[in-house]
Amino acid sequence: MPGLPYRIGRLTRTREDGTRYWSFCIKWADERGAHRVSLGTDDRAAAEAAAREFWGKRTLATAETVGEIVTAYLDSLGGLKDEKRKREAWVAAKPFWAGLRTHQIDAETGPTYIEQRQRALNTVRNELGLIRSALAWAHKDKQMIPVMPPVKVPAMPDSEVEHLTKAQFRRFLKGCKAPHVRLFVLLAIATGARSKHLLALPWVRVDWQRKHISLKPTRDGDKEAPNKGRATVPVDDERVWEALKEARHMAQTLFVIESGGERIASIRKGFEAASERSGVKCTPHMLRHSAAVWMAEARTPMDEIAAFLGHKNPLITARVYARFHPDYLRRAAKALRW
C-alpha cells in the first residue's frame, strides 16, 4: 500500500538438495542500510498480514511517543475501510500529539487539545477517537504500554434541530418572489435534500414518468464525502411537479435551479430576502430538518426517514429526529404502569 514504510518482495533460497524455493519477504531501509526478512509464506494475503504484524511489533518495541504508537497502529490496519479517515484525522492531530510520551498524558490533555483545536466537536471526536484506539491497541492487544492513558472522547451533545412548522413554511413560501427561489424551496421540502445537491441537480435526474428525483451523482468526479449519502426519492406533491414543468419550459441551462440563463451557485441571498418579507427566519438547511421532522411527526419509521435523507446510518437519524415521533418512548412508558 502506498505510504507504508516497508515493501513486500520475494526472497529466493536453496535447499540442501539443491532445489530452489521462494517466499514473500518484508523489505525496508533505515540508517543502517537495507533489510529483508522472510515472512514464511508464498500466499500474498497471508504475507501482507504477517508483514503488518511484524512491522507493528518492530515499531512498538522501540516506541516512546504517541506519534510512534499511532504510526504503528495505522500501519497495522491493512486497508480497512476507515483507514483513510483515520489517517486524515492523524494529519490534523499529529502536531499536538506526536511528541507526547504516554506517561505525560493526564485527564487535562484531551480537554486542552479540544480547546486548542477549535474545530467542530464531531471533528475533534474523530481525532481523539483515533488517539484512544491506537493507545488501547498498544495497551490491550500488544501489551506494549503498561497503563492505558486517560484519553476521553467527549459525548456527542443533542443536536439542535431548527425547523419550520407547516404554517411557518407556507408563510415563508409566500415571501419567495423569485421563481428560482420558490422552486428551490418547494424541492427542498419535498426531497429533504442538502442545498448543494439541489443546486447541482440536472434535469436528467428528474424522472417525470415515475415522479422520482435522483440526488445521486452521475459523474465520476461528483463524489460524496463519507457518511453523506444521497437518495432517489419520490415526490408526491403535484404543486412541485407543476413548478418543475414551468421551470423546464423556461430552462436555458442543464440545471433545474437557474436564474437569468445561468446556474445558481448560492441561494443564501434569496432566503434572506424571503425571510425578511415573510417574517419567518429560514435557512436552506432548516428545510431539510423540517422535512425530517414532518416525516417523524407523521409516524414514519426512522429507517425510512434515514433512507429518504440519504443517511447511511439510521442511528444518526434516530438520535436527531426520534424525539419528534409521537410514539417515541411510548412503549417504554407503558411498561411503567402499575
TrEMBL record:
Q: Name the domain of life this protein comes from.
A: Bacteria
User: Which residues belong to any copy of the Tyr recombinase domain?
Assistant: 159-334
Q: Does the keyword Glycoprotein apply?
A: no
Key words, A-Z:
DNA integration, DNA recombination
Cross-referenced Gene3D superfamilies, in alphabetical order? Intergrase catalytic core
GO MF annotations, alphabetized: DNA binding
- Does the UniProt entry include the keyword DNA repair? no
Q: What GO biological process terms does the UniProt entry carry, in alphabetical order?
A: DNA integration; DNA recombination
* Full protein name: Site-specific integrase
Species, as recorded? Sphingomonas crocodyli
* UniProt lineage: Bacteria, Pseudomonadati, Pseudomonadota, Alphaproteobacteria, Sphingomonadales
